[in-house]
Amino acid sequence: MTEKVRLGIIGLGAEGGMYADFLAKGMVPNMTLGAICDILPEKQDRFAALGVPFFADHRELIESGTVDAVVTTVPHYLHPEMGIHALENGVHALVEKPAGVYTAQVRDLIEVAERHPELQFGVFFNQRTNPLYKDLKALLDSGELGALRHTSWTITTWWRPQGYYDQSDWRATWGGEGGGVLVNQAPHQLDLWQWLCGVPTSVFAKCAYGFKRDIVVEDEVNALVDFGDGATGSFITATHDLDGTDRLEILCDRGKIVVENSSSVRITRLTDDEQALSRNLDMDAVRRLFTGQLDRAELMTTEEKDYGSVWGAQHVEVLRNFAAAVQGEEELLAPGADGIHGVRLANAIHLSSWLGEEVSLADFDEDAYLTELNRRIAAEGTFPTR
To answer: N or C, which terminus of the chain has less Cβ within 10 Å?
Structure first.
C-alpha cells in the first residue's frame, strides 16, 4: 500500500475528537480520515465539515469499505470486541489503552489477531514514543547498566475532584469502567514499567477503594512486585494527591536511572559492577568516600538531560507509525499483544488486594479474577456481569 491509510474513528469523545483534528489538519502525513462512528447522532452535525461518512454503529463502519483501519476510542470493555470485529472483517485495528478490562477478553483479541497476520494490530501506548523512554529502553536493552536490582515508580499526578467522578454514572464503577486509577489513569505507566524493566512474576498489593473519594473503585494503590532473580519493584499511584509526584527509579548492577516528571533523567554509570567495587575498595577509600575526600569520578559518572514536554507529538507519532506498519514500511512501536501485560498486572493488583495474598502473574488465574470482578459488578446492581 502506497496511498494514505484511511482511518475510521470509533467514538468521538475527547480522544477521538483529538485524532480527527490531527487528521483534518494533515498532521499525520501517511494517514487520512476515512469515516467516523458515534452512538450519539448529534455529533454528525458537529463533524459534518470533515466531509466523511458518519455511522452510528461500529459494525456498519467496519463493513462499509470506507476505511482501511480503525481506532477504538470507546469505554474500556468495548476495545476487544470492536478490535475483533475489525480484524475478522479485514480491517487493521488500533485499540486505545487499556486493551481491555480483564485478560480473558484481551486474550480473545490477541488470538484473533494471530489468525490474521496480514493485518496490523496495535495498542495506543503513546508514551512509548516519548524520546526519553525510547532512549532508556535502548540503554537498558544494551546491557550497559547490567541486571535489574530494584525499581520504583510513584505516579500520583492524576488528581481528580469528586465532580469528575460525578459527571457520568459509568465513571469509577466496576461494571461501567472496570476499575479506578489502574484502568483509567495509570495504564501507560504500567506498560512503560514492564517495557523497560521486564514483566514481573508476582505481585502483592494493598489498594484503597473509595479512600478519599465517594467511589467504589480504587483511588490509591501500593503494589510490590517480584521480577525474579532477586529483583523487586514498587508501584504507587493515587488520584487524591493535589500536588502530585512522578518519579521513576531503576537501580541496576552498574548504575541507576532517575526520571522526574517524565521529562528529565539522571543516569549514573558506575566504573565497575557494584559488587566488584564493594569487594575491591579498601576501608581507607571507603572512609574518604564517606567524608567527601574521594573523587566520586573514580567510582561513577553522571549524565543529566531534560527532554521537555512532547505530549502532543506522541499521539501523532503513534498514528504515523501505525500507518507505516500498515504500509509495510515499519514495525509497530506498540504491538497489540503487548497490551495484555498491563491489563494482567492491573488485574493481579486488584486480585491480590481482594484476597490479601501474593498473586502470580506467570500463571495468572483469570477465572478467579473474573469471579471477583463479577461479584463487585453484581453488587453495584447497574451493569451486566461479564
So the answer is: N
